[in-house]
Structure formats: C-alpha cells, structure tokens
C-alpha cells in the first residue's frame, strides 16, 4: 500500500521518465518539499531534484548518471550522510521496509521512503522528507499523556502514603529517648531522614502534576538570591564546594511567586552540588550565582565546575522522569521549567563534559 502523496510522486516520476516535451512535471518535482532520487532498472540515477541536492549539500547536477556505489564514494558527500544513505539502502532495499527514520547531524528528524515494483517498471524512487515538526507534536502529546497519568498517580500516593509516613515519624520521635538510652540514636536519625526524603518525593510528584497558582508580587532579585545562597551555604560547605554570589544591582525587580522562584533557584544550586560531587578530579568545587540586566530581561545564572553533561543528556534534561541521579525522580528541572514558563520566562543551559554547566533563567524586567 502506498500513500496518495507517493502516488502523485510516482505519476510525476513515470511521466518525467517517458520524456514529455512539457517541463511541467519536472517543475513539480523540483518544487515539492521532499528530496527525490530516481534510479532506473539498471541502478543508474536519472533524476535528482534541487531539494535533494540541498539536503546532501552537493553541487547541482553532480550526480546524474551515477550509481549508488558512485554516490557513496562521492568526494563532496560527508561521512555522516554516506552512512545514512547506506543505512537507508539496507533498511528499505535489503530488509524490505517501506520507510526509515533517522536524525541528522543538526538534530533534525527525517523519513526516507522507497517506491518500487510493477508500478515503477523496475525503477526505484527514494523520497526524503523532514518530519521534525511531527516529531515535536508526537513528543508533546507523549509528555501530556505522562503528566495526565502522573496527576492521577500523585493524588493516590498523597493519600495512601503520606498519612502512614506521618504516623511512623511521630512514633519514631516518641521512641527517640529510649533509642538514645540504648545507644541507637543514630538509627532514629536515619529513619527520620528517609521518611523526610520520601515526603520530598511525594511533594515533587504533587507539584509537577498540579502546580499551585502563582501568588504574584514584586521580587527584588538581589534579595531573592542572597536568601537562597544563605540557605544553601552550609550544605555546600559540607559537600566541599563554595558558593560565590556576585555583586548584584539593587534595582533588578521581577514579578512572580516568591516561593516558586526560590524553589527553582534552590533546585539548580542543589543540582550544581550533585554535579560537583560526581567530578573525577579533586579540584575545589565552585558555584557562581548572579544576575544582570539585558534589554528588557533579567538574566539569573547559576554555573558550576562539576562533571558537565553530554548532548544526549542536554536534549532530555527538562523531560519529566528523566534523571541521571541514582535516587532522583526526574521531576525537579521539569517543574522548574514549567514555573519559569508560567512567569513568562525561559531557562537555557550550556554544558561540557568535565568542565561544568551553566543555567540561565530569563525573566521580564519590572521597572
């Protein structure tokens, strides 16, 4: 079975092969939004449209009369593109699959399709179409489904687990004096810490599925960052790193929910601490926190000299449930991203392995 879109391409290709005096069909093939390669029954390339030349990044009419072997040995064709052409050939010609999807070196999604058989009279028609927009819609739909499922799950977790945890915590505190007499006070501390960690996980689930309505107020950025750094300084020292707060302009003001903004900055500083702990060298851990005005925006930045991240991790960093931590939930940055977007801003991140990471929160400046 072939699609209506492929049928129109087949009709145009067959008509073009028959050599019409009118160039209408050639013009159609030249201006469609897909790249086209047409091989005859002997495997010789008889037609390439300008879209395909652009995709392959080759000079115009440099391929006509070539075979697939000549195409793969073309001196101007990049190694990555040769690899994808060969994989497409294996998947669709040798394995008989009607299409093959891949991601190029620029992060764009493509679908290659093959039409052959009786309707092509022995010829092969390869079409290549960018499907990045479709993939984005697909990923958004998947994310929305995940969040909907998370909403139902978190409501159940909150009622079924939080109440027993509260009761357990109360009894452990009552037993604390007896454990102290037995010399087992450390056990009580461990149990309480684990109960608090379980409660934090439940809180993250609830926040990600049902974020509270922001309580809007004017927030001086200087005061916000000073308070968050003060809250995290002792924890940072225990983990062997220093937090440096740069000198800030006192007139930088944003509009938003002060609790939610603290949650975002705290989360990023704690992530920086974790990244520093996972380094391979013994150099001093440093976390830089600051803010500056750029046009009509305030840019808050948190940077560290931790282990850094690769490209694959950066691409999925803000996806719900994605985490590189052994005990992480994968919700912290997802929630932070949603909070900042609800405030009319955005979060950007840059990172390099073994060099560090830099987060930048951009928010509208209030005059």
Automatic annotation (TrEMBL):
Residues covered by the PAS domain: 21-65
Record's catalysed reaction(s): ATP + protein L-histidine = ADP + protein N-phospho-L-histidine
UniProt organism field: Paenibacillus rhizoplanae
EC number of the protein: 2.7.13.3
Record has ATP-binding as a keyword: yes
Short name of any one Pfam family annotated for the protein: PAS_8
InterPro entries: HATPase_C_sf, HATPase_dom, His_kinase_dom, HisK_dim/P_dom, HisK_dim/P_sf, PAS, PAS-like_dom_sf, Sig_transdc_His_kin-like_C
Broad class of enzyme this protein falls into: transferase
GO molecular function: ATP binding
Keywords, in A-Z order: ATP-binding, Kinase, Nucleotide-binding, Phosphoprotein, Transferase, Two-component regulatory system
Protein name (Swiss-Prot/TrEMBL): histidine kinase
PANTHER family, sorted: C4-DICARBOXYLATE TRANSPORT SENSOR PROTEIN DCTB, SENSOR HISTIDINE KINASE
Residues in Histidine kinase domain copies: 156-367
């Amino acid at each position: 079975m072939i699609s209506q879109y492929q049928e129109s391409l087949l009709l145009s290709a067959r008509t073009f092969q028959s050599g019409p005096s009118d160039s209408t069909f050639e013009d159609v093939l030249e201006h469609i939004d897909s790249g086209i390669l047409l091989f005859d029954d002997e495997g010789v390339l008889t037609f390439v449209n300008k879209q395909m030349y652009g995709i392959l990044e080759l000079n115009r009419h440099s391929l006509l009369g070539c075979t697939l072997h000549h195409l793969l040995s073309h001196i101007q064709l990049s190694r990555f593109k040769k690899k994808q052409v060969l994989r497409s050939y294996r998947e669709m010609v040798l394995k008989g699959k009607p299409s093959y999807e891949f991601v190029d070196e620029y992060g764009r999604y493509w679908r290659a399709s093959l039409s052959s058989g009786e309707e092509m009279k022995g010829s092969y028609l390869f079409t290549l179409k960018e499907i990045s927009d479709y993939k984005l819609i697909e990923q958004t739909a998947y994310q929305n489904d995940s969040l909907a499922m998370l909403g139902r799950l978190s409501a159940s977790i909150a009622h079924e687990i939080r109440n027993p945890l509260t009761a357990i915590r109360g009894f452990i505190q009552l037993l604390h004096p007896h454990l102290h007499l037995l010399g087992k006070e450390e056990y009580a501390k461990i149990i309480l810490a684990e109960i608090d960690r379980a409660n934090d996980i439940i809180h993250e689930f609830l926040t990600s599925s049902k974020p509270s309505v922001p309580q809007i107020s004017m927030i001086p950025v200087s005061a916000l960052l000073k308070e968050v750094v003060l809250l995290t300084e002792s924890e940072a020292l225990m983990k062997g790193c220093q937090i440096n707060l740069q000198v800030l302009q006192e007139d930088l003001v944003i509009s938003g929910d002060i609790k939610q903004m603290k949650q975002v900055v705290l989360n990023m500083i704690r992530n920086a601490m974790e990244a520093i702990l996972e380094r391979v060298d013994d150099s001093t851990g440093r976390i830089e926190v600051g803010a500056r005005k750029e046009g009509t925006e305030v840019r808050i930045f948190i940077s560290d000299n931790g282990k850094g991240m690769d490209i694959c991790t950066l691409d999925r960093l803000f996806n719900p449930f994605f985490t590189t931590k052994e005990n992480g939930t994968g919700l912290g940055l997802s929630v932070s991203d949603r909070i900042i977007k609800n405030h009319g801003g955005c979060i950007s991140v840059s990172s390099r392995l073994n060099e560090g990471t830099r987060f930048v929160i951009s928010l509208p400046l209030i005059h």
